[in-house]
Design goal:
Largest sheet: 4 strands, mixed
Number of strands: 8
Order of helices and strands: HEEEEEEEE
Radius of gyration: 21 Å
Strand content: 35-45%
Oligomer: single chain
Shape: globular
Number of helices: 1
Amino acid sequence: MKRYLCAILALFCLAGLTACGKKEAAAPVAAEDEVVVTVVCKDKGVNQIGYTSYIGGAYRTTGRGIELDGNSASGCTLEFRFSQEDFLEGDDISQFSIALSPYGKGSEEEIATTEPVPVSMEYGKVYTITLSSDGEAGFNAILL
């Protein structure tokens, strides 16, 4: 009986230890009145990304995100959230585009700026763009 009790206790301890492993980050969720653009940068030297957004080619907003968790060994992932306040009344957000500007660690100057990436947006949706270095030619941004 003691052997069975010890075995059961050992299983409970093992189950508790496996629950303590590293958790995957939750996928972003957009509220009904916002749009989320997640940028996944594959360049190890980038930990900041600036953006300029457009509707139908006309400027709307700029911003910049900084990844603070120090995970720059594999690049960085940043979320940009857009709400109705970021656009003018009557803007057709299906005509949205975004240009990305990566920054290196501690740098105040952008490394490059991508061409605007068209994103046919809808409120309540999440979109992912990958940003990767193209060697000397700069950076490429691709909507997934």
